[in-house]
Design a protein that fits this description.
The structure holds two protein chains of two kinds. Chain A has twelve helices and two strands. Chain A is mostly helical. Classes of the chains: A mainly alpha, B mainly alpha.
Chain lengths: 290, 335
């Protein structure tokens, strides 16, 4: 029964992991860039959502919409202003720039909100449902549901719109996409903005789920990297499956070992995948040098 | 101009402690040397070879702990064991590198970052060995405080000199040429007969040796090791920003970056209100990293050389490769 509890909680948290990691995958797809600032952006959105709740009383689920718009614009500007030029020149410079962004966010959060922990507490934060012998906090159901809604939205956008087709074409082969008339620079900017907006959407959800500190994004980016490597870098479907697998693995492990050790599950998977099957379980063998 | 200052500077630096340099300035130089040596080390993998390593911080901390534990349990003085600690960490780095470099592309940065997380996690959670978050208090190095300051000063000056010597040696060897070929076009480098995996792993091991030695010496300097200080993010960021600001892929760039940035940072942290000094420091270093990457990616040294020589920006010219077809190497980027 305990195991079933772990399984259920694993799927629920896996949904949120999938949401966070999908933005990372999208960005990697169009730019071949690992956005080291991805989790820092999630945490930054958590802080803003906390602030919106504290000052204006805006429910975190509503602040998702506001944050997505703001972060889409911010992300697109960052891409067009800084990263775009660097990716063309030298990918490692773009990577270092995202490292810089992560530190700017972490330092600013510490200066603005101190380095003690914050948590987003709403009126429904403490409710727990019981089904049979399984206890499920309401927050986890809400975050899972919101994550699924957003992921379905992203799926529809990518698979059933012209913009989505252009993004997928750019991901698969930039040169050919350009040949058939896709404005790849503009599409890359938009896709990056979407990736950042999705990270921002995960912020309020994460903040309702776990307490956060300015430097807690390092723990998260480690988890997200394990997920995208297990899923095969750039594979959207792989990311979703890997997120749920690792969510379950983590929640089941928590049942048997101290909670802080469960974070190691991600790294065990990361190293195991890289040794056994470096291209990930759903990735393709690289056809081009990245 | 063949840069006279690299010849003059060592003489001045050796003479300084004999001419009344002590206290705050001696410490300032010790830190600057430490950062410069680590940056020169980072540059061997991050600059020459073009692979971004985030493991140097993990090995700095691992070096601190290994050296600290050897002193704690066996009584082996750190200043003598530091080179050995470096070798141990380099061997560990070979293993990490082997896993990280099985695929080309971004897995190296992911694995090296994960490595740093794992070592820090273990330092925090293997409480029986490391003392957990309380850290380890090491036996003191009992000697006259001024002599003690001089000792650390000269020790790290020596490590820095060795780092620069190694970097010059690599840069002038076929091995160094191979690393640059990997940076410029790994596929072609491999095609021309370079064992790219081996080259990358050796470059990584050399790079790590300096981080681990610096970590070991620093543990003795503080007489203390804990998971926050040994894995302080700012250390990693500094290695990278100093290298990039000075000029990535050059011999003296990382040294120049360290000598500019460390004193500035000391002043900044001293000047800022202590409640937010750490946070603002981190954010500003991030801003510098983004700005340098965006607007001066070649770094001060290369940019200055170009201005002085009034040369056009570096262009690609073919140079004889290590066999096979010519490899394209950035002209004007080195020396």
């Amino acid at each position: 029964m305990l195991l079933l509890q772990g399984l259920v909680l694993g799927v629920l948290v896996g949904g949120m992991y999938a949401l966070m990691a999908s933005g990372l995958t999208l960005i990697f797809g169009v730019m071949r860039l690992i956005n080291i600032a991805h989790a820092a952006i999630v945490i930054f959105a958590s802080y803003l959502s906390w602030q919106l709740l504290a000052i204006l009383g805006i429910d975190p689920l509503i602040s998702i919409v506001i944050l997505m718009v703001v972060f889409f614009i911010g992300g697109a500007l960052l891409q067009a202003g800084v990263l775009s030029a660097l990716v063309d020149k030298d990918l490692s410079l773009a990577l270092l720039a995202t490292l810089g962004v992560a530190n700017v966010l972490e330092g600013s959060e510490g200066a603005l909100w101190t380095s003690s922990f914050h948590a987003i507490n709403t009126g429904y934060s403490d409710q727990v449902y019981q089904v049979g012998e399984i206890y499920v906090p309401l927050i986890r159901i809400i975050t899972f549901a919101a994550s699924v809604v957003l992921l379905v939205g992203l799926y529809v956008l990518l698979n059933h719109t012209d913009l989505g087709r252009a993004i997928r074409a750019t991901t698969q082969n930039r040169g050919v996409a350009q040949l058939v008339g896709v404005n790849v620079n503009r599409i890359t900017m938009i896709a990056f903005g979407i990736g950042i907006a999705v990270a921002a959407a995960a912020g309020p959800l994460m903040g309702m789920y776990y307490p956060f500190y300015p430097d807690s994004h390092w723990g998260w980016i480690g988890k997200l990297m394990a997920i995208v490597v297990l899923g095969g870098l750039g594979s959207f479907r792989g990311t979703l499956i890997a997120a749920v697998i690792l969510g379950i693995a983590e929640q089941v492990t928590i049942l048997y070992v101290p909670a802080n050790w469960a974070a190691m599950v991600f790294f065990v998977f990361l190293f195991a995948v890289l040794i056994v099957r470096p291209q990930g379980f759903f990735g393709h063998v690289a056809r081009e040098s990245l | 101009m063949a840069f006279a200052w690299p010849l003059v500077a060592p003489v001045i630096l050796v003479a300084l402690p004999f001419n009344g340099l002590n206290g705050f300035l001696l410490d300032l130089f010790y830190f600057t040397f430490t950062y410069a040596a680590m940056s020169v080390g980072w540059n061997i993998i991050g600059g020459f070879t073009g692979y971004i390593s985030l493991a140097n911080l993990g090995f700095f901390g691992l070096g601190s702990y290994i050296a600290g534990l050897m002193l704690f349990h066996l009584g082996w003085p750190i200043l003598l064991t530091a080179p050995l600690v470096g070798v141990i960490c380099s061997l560990a780095a070979a293993g990490v590198g082997w896993i990280a470099l099985r695929t080309k592309g971004p897995s190296f940065v992911i694995v090296t970052l994960a490595f740093t997380f794992i070592v820090q996690f273990l330092a925090l959670n293997l409480k029986d060995i490391t003392g957990g978050s309380a850290g380890l208090y090491l036996p003191l190095l009992i000697m006259d405080p001024i002599l003690r300051g001089d000792l650390f000063y000269f020790y790290m000056l020596g490590v820095l000199a060795l780092a620069v010597g190694v970097a010059i040696g690599i840069r002038r060897s076929r091995f160094g040429l191979g690393l640059i070929a990997i940076r410029e076009d790994e596929g072609k480098a491999e095609g021309s007969g370079i064992n790219t995996s081996l080259y990358k792993i050796i470059a990584f091991m050399i790079s790590i040796w300096f981080a681990a030695v610096a970590g070991a010496v620093h543990a003795q300097y503080l007489n203390y090791v804990d998971p926050d200080l040994a894995f302080e993010l700012i250390i990693m960021l500094n290695m990278i920003v100093m290298t990039l600001l000075g000029s990535r892929g050059t011999i003296w760039g990382p040294v120049l970056g360290a000598f500019i940035l460390f004193p500035l940072q000391s002043y900044l942290v001293y000047w800022l209100p202590s409640t937010i000094a750490g946070e603002v420091h981190l954010a500003l270093l991030g801003v510098v990293l983004v700005l340098v990457a965006r607007f001066m990616p070649d770094g001060l040294l290369v940019t200055a050389q170009r201005l002085v020589a009034r040369r056009p920006p570096p262009r690609l010219r073919p140079v004889p490769a290590v066999g096979g077809e010519p490899t394209r190497v950035m002209a004007g980027r080195d020396e």
